[in-house]
Amino acid sequence: MKQPFTIDLGYLHALRALREHGTITAAAAALHLTPSAVSQQLHVLSRSVGVPLLVRHGRLVRLTPQALVLLEHAEILHAQLERTRADLAGQADGQVGRLMIGAFATAISGVVAPALAELSAVRPRLEVMVQEMQAPECFTRLDSGELDLAITVEWRDAPHRGDPRYARRDLLRDPLDVALPATHPLARRSMVRLDDLAAQPWIAGAPGSPCAEVALAACATAGFNPRVRHVTEDWNAVIALVRAGAGVALIPRLALPTRPEGIVIRTLGQNGPARRIFAAVRAGSERSALIAPTLAALADIAGRKRPAGPAPPTPKGRRSRQLVTASAAALLPARDEGRPACLRRPSAHH
Questions:
Q1: At 217, which helix (H) or strand (E)?
Q2: Which of 112, 135, 268, 290 has its CA 20 to 30 A from that of 126?
């Protein structure tokens, strides 16, 4: 008689963490457990399914082919559990509950905060908590259940679109604009070519960060490698350094002040560099009565953001592969027409 085939889903989570983080010690840290507890869970899981899941490789361990097969099924199981949870939560009206969102700073100010203002008007008993964080931390916390929704930027190591662990919603293409000191000789021009800035000192984000990757790629396309003199992840610090004449920078539009003083902004054309912002939730949970309207609110706010208007005409006889032009971002007024039903305000006579 065959032994019952049972799997502890919590132990599957430990196996997923080992795959993601590479070592038992790192997986234990991500799960807030001790390494010995993770090792014990993996041992019990291996005994439960009746196949070896780990093989020694020096002082480390590697996943066996059987472990990789089990993980493929684990993704399906976890997604189905999230759908089950969403369907059960859907029995309620979604008016009451708690939601944890992780996002980077400019997404919080430019998208999350306006969306929460709209949600609070129609779902006042929905409690939303926001934590500032960057990728990949937001995905680690999303996997562990500490977050319900993550907002991040497309970058080189981001989960691919077909990743079965997540459901994602594209939110916004956020163009990067050029910031010049107001006293810079090029600030007097209405149009500036990006390669005009090749010899300038630059202010950029940390190497490997999404915005730094986009900025370096744009400069490479324009034919130069920028001379980065200052490195900071704080956009207020970038703006202050530009204002001080310390260099030039590419700044995401969401990070620009409403009325910049001491600096001049020149926006790239429609094909200029941009960071792509998206929301991610655990696969299956996007149907939750709490998460679905929150995603709708975020998409609604992001959808009202529009790229800059058309650039001024290029002076006759002067062509450029990529122009930086003076124009402003437009923000469409909020209207109920065409908005998700969950975000429409009730009529006055109701």
A1: helix 210-221
A2: 135
Angle subtended at Cα 344 by Cα 340 and Cα 349, rounded to the nearest 5 degrees: 150
% of the chain beyond a pLDDT of 70: 83
pLDDT digits (tens, 9 = 90+) for 179-235: 999 999 999 887 788 999 999 999 999 998 888 988 999 999 999 999 999 999 999
- HSE (side-chain half, CA atoms, 13 Å) at 176: 24
Query: What is the dihedral angle through the alpha carbons of 242, 245, 250, 254, rounded to the nearest 10 degrees?
Result: 20
CB 229 within 8 A of CB 201: yes
Question: Could you tell me if 329 and 174 are in contact, meaning their C-beta atoms sit under 8 angstroms apart?
Answer: no
* Burial annotation 228-246 (CB, 10 A radius, 16+ → b, else e): bebeeeebeebbebbbeeb
149 contacts 278 by C-beta, under 8 angstroms = no
Q: How far is CA 313 from CA 310, 319, 325, in A?
A: 9, 11, 9
**Strand, coil or helix: what is 343?**
helix
Residues of the chain with pLDDT under 50: 308-335, 346-350
Burial environment of residue 133 by CB neighbours within 10 A (0 to 12, 13 to 18, 19 or more): buried
* Residue showing tokens 């000191």: 181
The CA distance from 280 to 133, in Å, is 14
What is the chain's length?
A: 350
CA neighbor of 212 nearest in space, from 240, 231, 237, 195: 231
- State residue 9's pLDDT score: 82
List the domains of the chain with CATH numbers.
9-89 (1.10.10.10), 97-172+275-309 (3.40.190.10), 173-274 (3.40.190.10)
* Residue 81 burial (C-beta neighbours within 10 Å; 0-12, 13-18, 19+): middle
DSSP assignment, residue 305? E
Residue 136: asked if its preceding bond is cis (omega within 30°), the reply is yes
Is the sign of the CA dihedral 26, 63, 145, 233 positive or negative?
positive
| DSSP result, 237-283 | HHHHHHHTTS-BEEEEGGGS-SS--SEEEEEE-TTS-EEEEEEEEET
Residues 289-306 pLDDT 10s: 889 999 999 999 999 975
